[in-house]
Amino acid sequence: MHQNTSSTRDGSTPLASSFERYLQDKGKGRGGDGGNYRRNAARELERFAKWAAGDRGDDDWSGIVPDGIDREPTFADLDERVFREYARHLAGDRGLKQNTVQTYYRYISAWCGWCVNEGYLEAHYAQRASAMAPLPDDDGRRPGDQQAWTSEQRHALTRHVDEQAREAIETYTSLPDDVNQHDKQRARYAALKATRDRALVFTLAYTAVRVGELLRDPNDPRRRGVRWEEISLDDGSMDVYRKKQQWDAASLPDPVIAPLRSYRKLLNPPTDRWPVFPTFDQRTLSTLVEDELADRGERPDAIDKQRDEYARDLLLALDKDIRPPSITTDGARSILKRLSGAAEIDIDHPKHEYLAPHGGRRGMGEVLVRAFGYTVAARYLDNSEEMVRERYSHIEAGELGDVATEALNEIDSTPRNVDKQG
Asked: Mean pLDDT in runs of 10 for the chain (422 residues)?
């Protein structure tokens, strides 16, 4: 049994009793309740706990508790052999890619290191060479970030959303004066949705801003989506909460300005605190409108009457300044799936059958590296130059290949003196 200076953290402490405190330390926001890392780490800790207790769907595996002892796994049961066996278990899952196995193990290894610092364990067993030996070599790829929009894909998608927005605006603005009020509202709603989608696509395609910096992340309360007060169309800039946990200005290049300006004019938000990309989900908006009007003292029959006057709750929310939440990052993926299909874009990618949000950022990175080099691209992408060089190393490799080809062609075309044998 491992000895510990803390009387409450000896070897008999159950593993699971440490999880919540660890997750709070690693979480974001007030109380450490938010953040993608916390969510992913919680999932992997739960997976590890089930495996340690013998629950892995394998009759030959009884867990890490010694045979004949009926209790849940404790810290006394942990050593480097346990982590070696878990690494072997992850590596043996044929459904996991090499880099995914590495990622899952890192979550458990990080928890193990925290346990050492907190006095639960004497040593960082998970980082020992023997424990990590069964892990496959990392193939160098990162889950989910390989797709990059090509120039053809970017132009096809932006052209499609531009055409859809122009048609919707034309339909709305050309309605006769005597048109039915609800028909006019439906046309405005369609135009709003089309111009919102166009502004979103252009922003993702040309700014290289991370989708989590632009839209709402339900797992991180600080990421509530960009608001109009954080955008300056005249200056061509946008304040976003960066991955490095601080606010910073991102550039809005020329192709993004006109779509945003047209969309804002049509939306006409009641205040600048409105999200730039509000959700259009009807269930969310109906609940929001009913609750907000009730909080303002409206009676149920009066609320129903007001809602009946509008073809869509979003239009009522605009008139009554009932601020909706931003689209979520998952919502953006759904929008891009719909638009990629409607635009009939040719996509050949092993993971994504649509143009994923991160692909817009990565595609813009390709453009910047090729046009201006790694230093400028790193500044625009809000990354270190070292990371940008690593992510876009294929560009440098290709350029060096061209240099080598040119050198070979130069040498091969040079006349040579050949000794003639008599």
From this structure: 43 90 80 73 92 75 84 92 93 79 90 92 92 78 64 93 97 94 96 97 93 88 92 93 82 94 97 96 95 95 95 96 95 93 84 86 86 84 80 66 61 57 46
Cα separation, 110 vs 41, whole angstroms: 9
Considering the domain boundaries, does residue 8 fall inside one? no
Both structure tokens of 75: 């810290």
In a domain, 422, yes or no: no
Q: Say how far apart CA 99 and CA 107 lie, in whole Å.
A: 13
Say if residue 334 is in the same domain as residue 201. yes
CA 104, CA 395: separation in Å to the nearest integer?
29
Question: Are 94 and 183 within one domain?
Answer: no
Q: Which tens digit of pLDDT belongs to each residue from 32-75?
A: 666 777 888 899 999 999 999 887 655 577 889 888 788 899 99
Question: What DSSP string describes 31-49?
Answer: GG-B-HHHHHHHHHHHHHH
Give the pLDDT score at 8: 45
Q: Please give the Cα distance from 26 to 314 (Å, whole number).
A: 37
Q: Is there a single domain that holds both residue 369 and residue 351? A: no
Please say whether the dihedral angle defined by the alpha carbons of residues 366, 368, 372 and 374, taken in this order, is positive or negative: negative
Q: Are residues 205 and 270 in the same domain?
A: yes
Whether 79 and 202 share a structural domain: no
Sheet-wide strand order for 237-241: 231-232, 237-241, 247-251
Number of domains in the chain: 4
Domain coverage including residue 71: 15-132
Establish if 4 belongs to a structural domain.
Answer: no
CA distances from 420 to 415, 416, 417 (A): 15, 12, 9
Question: CB within 8 A of 133, min separation 6: which ones?
Answer: 84, 87
How confident is the model at residue 412, as a pLDDT? 64
Distance, in Å, from the CA atom of 210 to the CA atom of 242, rounded to the nearest integer, reads 8
Q: Are residues 234 and 339 in the same domain?
A: yes
Any domain includes 418: no
